[in-house]
Amino acid sequence: MNTLIETHNRSSFVHELTLDIKMALREPSFIWPTLAFPLMFYVFFGIVFSDHGGQNSSTYLMVSYGVFGIMAPALFGFGASVASERDKGWLAIKQISPVSAWQYMAAKLVNAIVFSLVIVIGLFTLGAVFGDVVLARSQWLAIAGLMLIGSLPFCAIGLAIGFWVKGKAATAVLNLIFLPSAFLSGLAIPVIIFPTWLQKMAMALPPYHLSQLGLSLVDMSLGQSIWLHIGCLIITLIVASFIAVKGYHHCQTK
After folding, report:
1. Dihedral sign of CA atoms 130, 135, 137, 139 in order
2. Where are the alpha helices (DSSP H) in the chain?
3. Rounded to whole angstroms, how far apart are CA atoms 76 and 84?
4. Which of 35, 157, 182, 241 is the most buried (most CB within 10 A)?
5. In the prediction, which pLDDT does 7 show?
6. Distance in angstroms (rounded) separating the CA atoms of residues 144 and 89
7. Gap between the Cα atoms of 174 and 79, Å rounded
8. What 3-state DSSP class applies to 9?
9. Other CB atoms closer than 10 Å to residue 194's CB: what's the count?
10. How far apart are CA 4 and CA 253, in angstroms?
């Protein structure tokens, strides 16, 4: 009996994940900017215009654009899609379907991680082939693993937005979070160049802490404690998840 239930749960999850990936692939306005922007920015600023900094700037920007790249599928894959499905009533249908709430969430999480992995591999390939980035195998793997795990707080933020903001407004709200927090966190320009008050502002933003963790793996961070960065990301994950759960229950009672 337990075997049958496990098989059924696994089958439901695989179907939900397949459906979620197919829906994402059928949205060219989502998939192309999500995949192309971080790679395009890295080609321009990390490879073509990196003559002054050489390998160091290529390595720095490969890590920082990695954070930029994983933010988009985490925020928009969760936020915009959940808000849209909620407005269309699909979320209510899911609640009475064989797919459980955790399978629905897990499918979106895996979907976001798959897109993040494609972006990270693309950046690594560009960095190694055209940017002369040379790292030990353990460093490549550590950065890739960090990026994928580090996408969780952004998934939670996207989920919270998706449950509380209407579908038509969700993309605009997510853009207001995505672009300013990415640039103010020093993902395009090193934070050390910022004025002091902007540097303090950057420390309040999750992308800053994830990028500093990544840069610490290549000895390019600002030297702050890694526990400060880990703590800030965990707090973001907990707070955003709490708001998302509240939003989910709010949707159920409407």
Report:
1. negative
2. 2-25, 28-41, 55-88, 90-95, 101-129, 137-150, 152-164, 167-184, 196-202, 206-216, 226-253
3. 11
4. 157
5. 62
6. 36
7. 7
8. helix
9. 15
10. 32
Q: Give the per-residue pLDDT at 70.
A: 93
Examine the pLDDT at 193 and tell me if it is beyond 60: yes
What's the confidence (pLDDT) of residue 136? Answer: 95
Q: How many C-beta atoms surround the C-beta of residue 207 within 10 A? A: 25
Q: Which region, left, alpha or beta, applies to residue 147 given φ > 0 means left and ψ of -120 to 50 means alpha?
A: alpha
Amino acid (one-letter) located at 45 = F
Q: What is the DSSP letter of 48?
A: I
Structure tokens at 224: 């702050």
Report residue 102 CA to chain centroid gap: 19
Q: pTM of the predicted model, to two decimals?
A: 0.86
pLDDT value for 64: 94
The DSSP letter of residue 254 is -
Spatial CB neighbours of 227, under 8 Å, sequence gap ≥ 6: none
C-alpha dihedral sign at 111, 146, 144, 64: positive
Residues 6+ apart with CB under 8 A from 132: 54, 55, 58
CA distance 81 to 103: 15
Q: pLDDT per residue over 130-180, tens digit each?
A: 988 999 999 999 999 999 999 999 999 998 998 898 877 888 898 899 989
Query: Whole-angstrom Cα distance, residue 90 to residue 9?
Result: 20
| Mean predicted confidence (pLDDT) in 81-85 | 80
Q: What is the dihedral of CA 49, 53, 59, 62, to 10 degrees?
A: -30
Looking up tokens 């795990």, which residue turns up?
149
- Reference 24, options 74, 71, 67; nearest CA is 74
